[in-house]
């Protein structure tokens, strides 16, 4: 196995995370650490220098995907803010999230296997920290515009996040032939009825 003595710690960590993301996306949590270190061009010792165990590695890959999705979703929402139709921002963010759920790596690592690998408590904590904050921000924009009552924002954020998660799972599993477009159309109707 080739070793790179010139690779610094951040580069090594990035190589491990990329190799792990690819392996977890194609093989799930069953991917072997041997295959991950071979793909990254490092030793197991180097892997364990950066990650305590396979679950810690999976958590970081899961978190990175969630963080990248959240950043991309917020960027789409901000780019679509409109004084004429304030709902366009949240709808653009919802669409971008749903597009992420069609990515094989996001589907398998975040939506399908994440809860089982991380355990419900860890999964809920991280999902709340990343996902709900994005939704709260979008709902907060509608509150600022006077379209949603401030005292309902937190509850509506939970409902919207749950709807998006369920829709993402339906897309990942191809349930009832739903599409990003059909879900976005339904979300448009639902969101505009929230007060």
UniProtKB/TrEMBL annotation:
Q: What is this protein called?
A: HTH tetR-type domain-containing protein
Boundaries of every HTH tetR-type domain copy:
10-69
Q: Which PANTHER family match?
A: HTH-TYPE TRANSCRIPTIONAL REGULATOR BETI (PTHR30055:SF234), HTH-TYPE TRANSCRIPTIONAL REGULATOR RUTR (PTHR30055)
One annotated GO molecular function is: DNA-binding transcription factor activity
Q: Which residues bind DNA?
A: 32-51
Key words of the record: DNA-binding, Transcription, Transcription regulation
InterPro entries reported in the protein's UniProt record: DNA-bd_HTH_TetR-type_CS (IPR023772), Homeodomain-like_sf (IPR009057), HTH-type_TetR-like_transc_reg (IPR050109), HTH_TetR (IPR001647), Rv0078-like_C (IPR049484), Tet_transcr_reg_TetR-rel_C_sf (IPR036271)
| Keyword Nucleus found | no
Q: Which domain of life is it from?
A: Bacteria
Organism for this UniProt entry:
Hyphomonas atlantica
